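Input record, target 12 of the design panel.
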């Protein structure tokens, strides 16, 4: 397939963009839990791994200055492949937690840099018509990466645990497989990515101008009308989810004697990583359709309720501790369906608030606050859970939903925003 054909590189590029992110934010949690790390340490240190996405806007100008976007894409993919391969070899060592955590940091920074380069390359490698045409394609393959990372890879790790009886070996093979995929993608993209004429490094003599423009963009962001309400919304809308997401997999894995559901790694790959993700995708699709018909303001409160109230399923699961996999799967599907539907309001508000002269840059800053809103609550979630137990932890999550309702009540949104008539 010719490299001038977008189908030759867009699907693989955005599939590759998703894999390292989920390795850092999701797969690492399950791996550490299976290797005996306690919930407090898992939540604290894996939440810190969101930091590269928080500060991503601050080094994005250097991606433009120091190399081509094509060069950054290939280089970061190979670096991530090497880091994932190193994790595979270091899992069996005695101080694996410290070593693998350092490598996850390297992967996180490389992944965030890859995001900057890939999204910029998308704009340079396609004309405006194809940018619109392939926006859905790149989203689909990013979601496929979600299912592959949180579903297929976790299932493979679980099967290997059963077959080998050796948990470190099983996870070492799984991360080795992930490393091979990243290496293959890196070498493939060195051939398949086109070389747009505009993909050239920024002139270093313009560095001062870059910093001046960046300062102007940042200051204008914080001078936007309603900035205080917007920041509160970005940081607190997902306060319940930020804590919940770090403890879901430990809850599913932990034994029933300490309040968990005692699922196997393999079962989590199917139930949470596949069925749950399908619910998430469906919810997101339905949310987008609904907003396009009636606007964000009309659907705001249904979406607020959808992202909050289904969290009750974990209160039920922690108290009832059912062993029926259909019941557990149904509960997780409902929660993820609601989350996907409600999260639409969050993402669209970021777009709404970022409108104006520097829309792209302001949106990047907004996504940094989005990552910060996940990082800070997630850091303490493990400590809270171990202090009060799973039952009261999930009740606490429901109490935190009051923050979601409170910041949503402060928003002022144009009724036409999000509709086809805007």
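The sequence produced for target 12 reads:
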């Amino acid at each position: 397939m010719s490299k001038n054909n977008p189908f030759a590189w867009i699907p693989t590029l955005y599939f590759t963009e998703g894999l390292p992110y989920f390795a850092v934010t999701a797969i690492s949690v399950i791996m550490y839990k299976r290797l005996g790390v306690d919930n407090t340490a898992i939540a604290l240190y894996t939440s810190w791994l969101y930091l590269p996405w928080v500060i991503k806007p601050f080094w994005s100008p250097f991606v433009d200055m120091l190399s081509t976007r094509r060069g950054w894409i290939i280089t970061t993919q190979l670096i991530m492949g090497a880091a994932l391969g190193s994790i595979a070899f270091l899992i069996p060592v005695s101080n694996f937690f410290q070593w693998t955590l350092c490598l996850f940091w390297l992967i996180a920074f490389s992944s965030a840099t890859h995001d900057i380069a890939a999204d910029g390359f998308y704009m340079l490698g396609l004309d405006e018509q194809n940018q619109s045409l392939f926006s859905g394609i790149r989203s689909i393959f990013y979601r496929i990466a979600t299912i592959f990372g949180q579903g297929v890879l976790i299932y493979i790790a679980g099967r290997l645990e059963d077959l080998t009886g050796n948990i470190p070996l099983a996870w070492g093979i799984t991360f080795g497989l992930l490393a091979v995929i990243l290496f293959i993608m890196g070498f493939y993209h060195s051939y398949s990515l086109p070389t747009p004429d505009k993909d050239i490094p920024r002139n270093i003599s313009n560095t001062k101008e870059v910093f001046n423009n960046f300062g102007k963009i940042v200051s204008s962001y914080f001078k936007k009308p309603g900035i205080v309400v917007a920041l509160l919304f970005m940081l607190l809308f997902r306060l319940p989810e930020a804590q919940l997401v770090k403890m879901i997999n430990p809850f599913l894995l932990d034994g029933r004697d300490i309040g968990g559901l005692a699922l196997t790694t393999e079962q989590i790959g199917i139930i949470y990583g596949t069925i749950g993700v399908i619910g998430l995708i469906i919810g997101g699709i339905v949310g987008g359709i609904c907003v396009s018909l009636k606007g964000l303001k009309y659907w705001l409160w249904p979406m607020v309720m959808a992202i909050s109230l289904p969290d009750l399923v974990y209160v039920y699961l922690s108290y009832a501790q059912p062993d029926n996999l259909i019941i557990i799967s149904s509960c997780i599907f409902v929660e993820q369906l609601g989350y996907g539907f409600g999260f639409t309001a969050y993402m669209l508000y970021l777009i709404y608030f970022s409108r104006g002269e520097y829309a792209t840059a302001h949106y990047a800053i907004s996504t940094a606050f989005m990552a910060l809103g996940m990082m800070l609550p997630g850091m303490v979630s493990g400590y809270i859970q171990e202090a009060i137990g799973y039952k009261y932890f999930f009740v606490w999550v429901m109490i935190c939903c009051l923050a979601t309702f409170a910041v949503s009540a402060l928003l002022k949104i144009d009724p036409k925003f999000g509709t086809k008539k805007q």
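The chain is about 80% helix and 0% strand.
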